[in-house]
Amino acid sequence: MIVVEKIRKEFGKNQVLKGISFNLKKGEFAVVLGSSGAGKSTLLRCLNGLCQPTSGKIVINDVEMNQKNLNKIRKRVGFIFQNINVVGNLTVMQNVLTGSLAGKSPWNIFFDREEKKKAIQAIEMVGLADKVNTRVDKLSGGQKQRVGIARVLVHNPEIILADEPVSSLDPVTGQGIMELLEHINQDLGTTVLCNLHQIEYAKQFAKRIFGIENGYIQFDKQVSEISDVDLKSIYGHSFNKQDRPKEIDDRNDSYSLQYDVI
């Protein structure tokens, strides 16, 4: 599904990625952990062609990432932004329909009945059926992020890249967004690669965790194998055992995606 081979990214003299390699299988839910400036966002942007690696190779579904194949890859890959990146003066429906532009020519921006139907289905999936015609600037932060996710879903991506999707949200709202991504992964079979700062979310939702520090992958393990030593390798002395977030084991207390929208 995703093959990354020795990618490096330099901004001037600053080396951000220093030979990153990994494979991600179809249907996996993986999380990238790391401190600020470790290279997490740059990695995801390279995977979607928003940022071109200085060297190395990226293959998405047997298609090599290059300028020629960029549009083909972007039709298969959805990107959820840290800053949400929705248009406030447009309605929920209008924002979500822009997700259909990924498969259109610049001169063809007409949305047909089928595309509008898919947009409605995506909006319902993220729990905003009663907000279809509401302007996005009237929504809460969590609802805005759901609009961003619906916009991604409308073009049926095989892969979703989420760049710190809950960083600006409170813990309860963030929990709901992570549950939504889990729902998409499990029910639709969509591969999810998500950047996070929250260790507890990574342990709760991911099956696999990459730890990045200073442009290198420090560990690549199943969640059950992650130790305090691993976490200290990416967070250093700022991570102490007594400060370790409590894992959320009881899923019965979580908010329902179907009925609770924040």
Provide a quick synopsis of the model.
Helix content is 30%, strand content 24%.
Low-confidence stretches: 245-262
Largest sheet: 6 strands, mixed
Q: Hey, roughly how much beta strand do the residues contain? A: 15-25%
Number of helices: 8
Indicate the mean pLDDT: 87
Q: Helix and strand succession?
A: EEEHEEHEHHHEHEHEEH
Q: Summarize the amount of helix as a percent range.
A: 25-40%
Count of beta strands: 10
Instruction: Trace the largest sheet across and list its strands.
Output: 6-7-8-3-9-10
SS class = alpha/beta
What is the global morphology?
globular
How far do the termini sit from each other? 33 Å
From the alpha-carbon coordinates, what is the Rg to the nearest angstrom? 18 Å
GO molecular function: ABC-type phosphonate transporter activity; ATP binding; ATP hydrolysis activity
Domain ABC transporter: 2-239
Organism: Halanaerobium congolense
Protein name: Phosphonate transport system ATP-binding protein
What order do the helices and strands come in, and which of them pair?
Elements: E1 2-11, E2 14-24, E3 29-33, H1 40-47, E4 55-60, E5 63-64, H2 70-74, E6 77-80, H3 92-97, H4 113-125, H5 141-153, E7 159-163, H6 171-188, E8 191-196, H7 199-205, E9 208-213, E10 216-222, H8 228-235
Helix pairs in contact: 4-5, 5-6
Question: What does it look like?
Answer:
With 262 residues, this protein is of the alpha/beta class. It has a domain at 77-156. Helices cover 30% and strands 24% of the residues. The protein contains eight helices and ten strands. It has helices spanning 40-47, 70-74, 92-97, 113-125, 141-153, 171-188, 199-205, 228-235, and strands at residues 2-11, 14-24, 29-33, 55-60, 63-64, 77-80, 159-163, 191-196, 208-213, 216-222. The strands form two sheets. Strands 6-7-8-3-9-10 form a six-stranded mixed sheet, sandwiched between helices. Strands 2-1-4-5 form a four-stranded antiparallel sheet, with helices on one face. It is globular, with a radius of gyration of 18 Å. The two termini are 33 Å apart.
